[in-house]
């Protein structure tokens, strides 16, 4: 299927977003290391010297540029195309870490990178065309169709049950609770981001959409969903090992976002069965590559841990079942600080 101009623009912006966000992790980590060396106190131990480090701020600006590019990408291309491409930021981060931070990239990690690229190519080739939208009212009509209202209602019910019943009892022992909440809210935030981005795009084209109350409503929904999403993602990252949270969150968030987009924007309408099956296969390949990358990273850290300490750390599958990855949270001397862990949400959001 040929690329429309909007799809091509969204694709390029998504690639740029992944590049900037992936590079921002490495730049910020270099800044954190430099600040820790100068002050003697790491960010993970409560130090804030990184706020005076220009390199850290350069990394933060790079990440913001990537997030903005991702936001704009949703205004031009369907979420089915943009969201899975967020996995490429993991590749950029892994490759740069290998060469700049001297963090070894395992052979299976390289295979994971290849799988992510191959899956992304399949998705891009068979991605649906962006639907032409001429006003915010058209988006409202899509958002109020029965099927999508049922999806939104189901999401809100699940979120409330998870927050008020499961989180207090199982939130700190089962990784699926916190990641489930932020993934469900994340799918709604992406739909609202796409609606808001499209409204701003139309406004810049001379069709002012800011005069409509619906535009500001979508802005409110974006703020509410993102705040809730980040709150529970930070809880997940603070409670469990990143090597567990990242792949689970990416799989849940990306899957739910694509489902929401298919329902609201009817991305698959008019596509052949072959194209849809190819997109699903490409998506599965990307998910598999992403999980392999993170499992490999966890394996390397586990090996290092076992080489320095007598007790054996639990396997990834064991910790996935128990939901607790605390044993590896501080296993490496140069492991991620709390500041880095918080910033890793983009590993994934896009």
From TrEMBL:
<feature type="transmembrane region" description="Helical">
    <location>
        <begin position="276"/>
        <end position="296"/>
    </location>
</feature>
<feature type="transmembrane region" description="Helical">
    <location>
        <begin position="6"/>
        <end position="27"/>
    </location>
</feature>
<keyword id="KW-1133">Transmembrane helix</keyword>
<feature type="transmembrane region" description="Helical">
    <location>
        <begin position="216"/>
        <end position="233"/>
    </location>
</feature>
<comment type="subunit">
    <text>Homodimer.</text>
</comment>
<dbReference type="GO" id="GO:0015095">
    <property type="term" value="F:magnesium ion transmembrane transporter activity"/>
</dbReference>
<dbReference type="GO" id="GO:0005886">
    <property type="term" value="C:plasma membrane"/>
</dbReference>
<dbReference type="GO" id="GO:0005769">
    <property type="term" value="C:early endosome"/>
</dbReference>
<dbReference type="InterPro" id="IPR037185">
    <property type="entry name" value="EmrE-like"/>
</dbReference>
<protein>
    <recommendedName>
        <fullName>Probable magnesium transporter</fullName>
    </recommendedName>
</protein>
<comment type="similarity">
    <text>Belongs to the NIPA (TC 2.A.7) family.</text>
</comment>
<keyword id="KW-0813">Transport</keyword>
<feature type="transmembrane region" description="Helical">
    <location>
        <begin position="148"/>
        <end position="168"/>
    </location>
</feature>
<feature type="transmembrane region" description="Helical">
    <location>
        <begin position="240"/>
        <end position="264"/>
    </location>
</feature>
<feature type="transmembrane region" description="Helical">
    <location>
        <begin position="175"/>
        <end position="196"/>
    </location>
</feature>
<feature type="compositionally biased region" description="Basic and acidic residues">
    <location>
        <begin position="341"/>
        <end position="350"/>
    </location>
</feature>
<feature type="transmembrane region" description="Helical">
    <location>
        <begin position="55"/>
        <end position="76"/>
    </location>
</feature>
<keyword id="KW-0812">Transmembrane</keyword>
<keyword id="KW-0406">Ion transport</keyword>
<dbReference type="InterPro" id="IPR008521">
    <property type="entry name" value="Mg_trans_NIPA"/>
</dbReference>
<keyword id="KW-0967">Endosome</keyword>
<feature type="region of interest" description="Disordered">
    <location>
        <begin position="327"/>
        <end position="350"/>
    </location>
</feature>
<keyword id="KW-0460">Magnesium</keyword>
<feature type="transmembrane region" description="Helical">
    <location>
        <begin position="108"/>
        <end position="128"/>
    </location>
</feature>
<comment type="function">
    <text>Acts as a Mg(2+) transporter. Can also transport other divalent cations such as Fe(2+), Sr(2+), Ba(2+), Mn(2+) and Co(2+) but to a much less extent than Mg(2+).</text>
</comment>
<feature type="transmembrane region" description="Helical">
    <location>
        <begin position="82"/>
        <end position="101"/>
    </location>
</feature>
<keyword id="KW-0472">Membrane</keyword>
<dbReference type="Pfam" id="PF05653">
    <property type="entry name" value="Mg_trans_NIPA"/>
</dbReference>
<keyword id="KW-1003">Cell membrane</keyword>
